[in-house]
Amino acid sequence: MAEKMASAAQPQSPNLVIHILSQHVRTEADWNSLIESNFAPNTQWTAIQNRLLDSSSSDSTKAAGKVLEIRATLTLSNPNERITVDHCKALRNSEAIQHLQQAEKVEVVHQPFDLYLDHRTPGLAVFDMDSTLIQQEVIDELARAVGRYDEVAAITEAAMRGELDFEASLRARVGKLEGVDANIWDKLKRDVITVTPGARLLVKALKGLGWKTAVLSGGFTPLALWLRDQLGLDYAHANHLALNEAATLLSGKLVPGSKIVDGVAKRELLIQLAEENGIPLKNAIAVGDGSNDLLMMSAAGWGIAFNAKPKVQEAAPARLNTSSLLNIMYLLGYTNAEIAKAADVEISILHT
């Protein structure tokens, strides 16, 4: 894509990266129109380079795609100050960006250029499970089996919004699962659970690039371990449900003495996994949708709220509201060709 935004007196290097994800394919002319209307260079910032990450054409005159990357320099009042995630959150929440997203049906994600470069080095990627790697809230589906879906789902929603203490809400919901058939996991795997679009290819691409991956879930081990094997994740941590004496039904309790995987535990596990693998935290990313994911998002070099609750989106370092988890690869700066190579698939497979 033509680099039409560079100024005659452009700075030597960028300090900010902006990704714009469109709901539909845009031609080069479409993108240039959007850029000129919303990202014209001014006294506060200068764009250095832009490129399409998902263009299927090597001919810049025929370039078209859904994902544009802009590398820019943002001028700060203190010339010695570095761009931080907080600066990016302020940009994200600005009236201009909010209007752009609504008017153009795009998602705009900002990140410090230093952080962007850090994630070109293979690191650690940790994910929440429910409503992140999979599209369901598992505890709600377990409650459905004993006719208690509505009351459990209401508690789940309040907990994910951060309105209830996670451990207390977990124990309250688990208590309503007493009597659920211990073999229900097979039915859930077969008939209910759906992996989020893009999750399989995202993990495969990250693994191909040398990243370590983990699911850290406030859900339950039978599905977390299954999902680890399904996606090829390196680690899985979740809560342990106890059975009755005959081991045929859920008892409505957690296994005594087992560690509860709440927000604090997720943060501790992320730090532990990074240390065990010799990975600096700046090279870690954390992805989730609930309030109990915010601590691990803050501990990681970069945290991404994926289709998250409003309060979580507001607090998270970054947010991504798209249908596919594979879009995270674009935020890390990879093109379609690079993603396909890392995942060992044809480019045509990426968005089928």
> What's the CATH architecture name of the largest domain?
3-Layer(aba) Sandwich
Please summarize the sheet with the most strands. Answer: 6 strands, parallel
List how many beta strands DSSP finds.
12
Chain-averaged pLDDT: 91
Task: Based on Cα principal axes, name the global outline.
Answer: elongated
Structural class: alpha/beta
Query: What is the strand arrangement across the widest sheet?
Result: 7-6-5-10-11-12
Give the ordered list of helices and strands. EHEEHHEHEHHHHHEHEEEHEHEHEHH
The CATH superfamily of the largest domain is identified as: HAD superfamily/HAD-like
> How much of the sequence is in beta strands?
15-25%
The CATH class of the largest domain, by name, is Alpha Beta
Helical residue percent band: 25-40%
Domains (count): 2
Give the uncertain stretches in residue-range form.
2-11
What's the layout of helices and strands?
Layout: E1 16-27, H1 28-38, E2 45-52, E3 64-74, H2 85-92, H3 95-104, E4 106-112, H4 113-118, E5 124-127, H5 138-144, H6 149-160, H7 166-175, H8 184-192, H9 199-209, E6 212-220, H10 221-231, E7 235-239, E8 241-243, E9 250-254, H11 263-276, E10 284-288, H12 294-299, E11 302-306, H13 310-315, E12 318-320, H14 327-331, H15 336-343
Parallel strand pairs: 5-6, 5-10, 6-7, 10-11, 11-12
Antiparallel strand pairs: 1-3, 1-4, 2-3, 8-9
What does this structure look like?
InterPro entries: HAD-like_SerB (IPR050582), HAD-like_sf (IPR036412), HAD_sf (IPR023214), PSP (IPR004469). This protein is α/β, with parallel strands linked by helices and 352 residues long. 38% of the residues lie in helices and 22% in strands. The chain has helices at 28-38, 85-92, 95-104, 113-118, 138-144, 149-160, 166-175, 184-192, 199-209, 221-231, 263-276, 294-299, 310-315, 327-331, 336-343; strands at 16-27, 45-52, 64-74, 106-112, 124-127, 212-220, 235-239, 241-243, 250-254, 284-288, 302-306, 318-320. Strands 7-6-5-10-11-12 form a six-stranded parallel sheet, with helices on both faces. The chain has a four-stranded antiparallel sheet with strand order 2-3-1-4. Helix 5 (138-144) packs antiparallel against helix 6 (149-160) and helix 6 (149-160) runs antiparallel to helix 7. The two termini are 24 Å apart.
